[in-house]
From TrEMBL:
UniProt keyword annotations, A-Z: FAD, Flavoprotein, Oxidoreductase
Family: Belongs to the DAMOX/DASOX family.
Domain FAD dependent oxidoreductase: 7-331
Gene3D superfamilies in the cross-refs: D-Amino Acid Oxidase, subunit A, domain 2, NAD(P)-binding Rossmann-like Domain
Upper lineage: Eukaryota, Fungi, Fungi incertae sedis, Mucoromycota, Glomeromycotina
Species, as recorded: Funneliformis caledonium
Protein name per its UniProtKB record: 16153_t:CDS:1
Amino acid sequence: MSRKNRVNVIGAGVVGLTTGLVLQKNGYKVKIIAEHWPGDLSINYTSPCAGAIFSPHEFFDERYEKIQNVSYKTLWELSNMNDTGVIRLPNFIFYEKDPHIDVEKLFKGVYHEFHILPKNELPKNVDYGISFTTVTIDVPIYLRWLLNQFTSAGGVTQKAHLNHLNDADEPNVDFVINCTGINARNFGGVDDDKVFPTRGQIVVVSAPHIKFAKSLQEEDGTYTYIIPRECGEVILGGTMDVNNYDTTPDPKTAESILNRCIKLCPELTQDKDLSSVHILRHVVGLRPSRKGGIRLETEVRRNSVGKDVIICHNYGHHSYGYIMSWGSAIEALELIKSVKSQKEARL
């Protein structure tokens, strides 16, 4: 019997954990190497900061659309299971001005209970709106669930700070999967100057009575959203600050977020004033954005001792990490299977 191919995954964010789990369950012997793990808080560890709602985005690339749809179907199935932190709820998306996108193509036939909202169901000064049933993810619970699934399937973990791709190239390792996220910009052997941070600030409140998600996209680019979690917390956001590395929550931004969210969702106050909103914490995260989109490809590199190492890159997901995680992981699996077949054919 041939030995299992060994894979080292760099990074334990949602993309790294999902990729490691998919590969481990498909016959590979996987180790995830990362400095930060579920339960840790660091500005260099983006996944715990995410709002994590499945709200589809319009992509002009059929590959992206496929990746997104695979992820939605998987997360929908996970919402049937206990302890995943994934739940279903109604989602209402409003646009201040008609976005003139093909919503029928983007939503209908894939997302459950999709409707274009009639004018009389739209908030004041809103031109267009849709609704459908979506999933939201309680991030701390979900990340721990992914990790537990990975280790239960036989996956191995290593807590370590790596400085270079070569640091993950161990004897008998066949593939290295690069899921370094925002760190890909300065990670040795990658140094991808196309990667940049898009700062996001959110306010987390306790509002277990909110059982639906809402968002509003304004013409000037302002994006307001309300995302409930299974535990009763609600994520209020947000911001999209390109190339902003500031890690400190800004009080004026927090005040703006609260006012925008209460205007969009008056139910937050339960007919009381702003002071009745129970604020739990303020959070800042750096989305791993990348010019040109996700880098999802393989390459062969010769390391310092003359060995050819197969690298699969899977990073640059911007704010789509949870939305794209399962589809990206399966795409990575297909890529390394293809490389493996080509390699075996040459032998």
